[in-house]
């Protein structure tokens, strides 16, 4: 019988349960979260830091997983974009409360090729494409009517044609150095396993909760 949502009554996580490749293991857990009906199972809390080391965090949507790592998109002029430009390292955590699981990822970040960003942008709803042009993400705004006006102007500009990707909008690849998988257990005696990159391979170690 499945454990109640959000409890520490799920089965233990053993070393033998883990794939040697953390990317494959992440795929498995993400698929399980989708199958369990977890809302926005691909929502991650992404942490970045500026050149001085001051951190900031926000939720974004994970839009792809490759053999190299994890893909997300944003306005490059936003705070996270500026911070990644100054300090191209990041970390994220995803929590699947219904399964009492979380994953923590840390690594370096690189820009996706323009062709990859173009291809993804073309799949977005037209309203989202227009919104990407209209929003000066992270900049001060006196009132919402400014955004609404910019959106109207953008819609008129591209009326009757395709909406191209803005030059200030693009994708990033987070290539992990380490990935931790956490399975909740009663009395805070959780199961934790950390993958650490070792050349072209990965080492796996169990951590104290």
Could you characterize the architecture of this molecule?
This protein has 209 residues and is of the alpha+beta class. It has a single domain, classed as Electron Transport, Fmn-binding Protein, Chain A (Pnp Oxidase, Chain A, Roll), CATH 2.30.110. It is 26% helix and 34% strand. It has five helices and nine strands; from the N terminus they run H-E-E-E-E-H-E-E-H-H-H-E-E-E. The protein has helices at residues 22-35, 79-86, 114-123, 126-134, 144-157; strands at residues 43-49, 55-61, 64-65, 70-75, 89-96, 101-111, 169-183, 191-198, 201-207. Strands 1, 2, 3, 4, 5, 6, 7, 8 and 9 form a nine-stranded antiparallel β-sheet that branches. A hairpin with a 4-residue loop joins strand 3 and strand 4. Helix 4 (126-134) packs across helix 5. The longest helix has 14 residues, at 22-35. The mean pLDDT is 94.
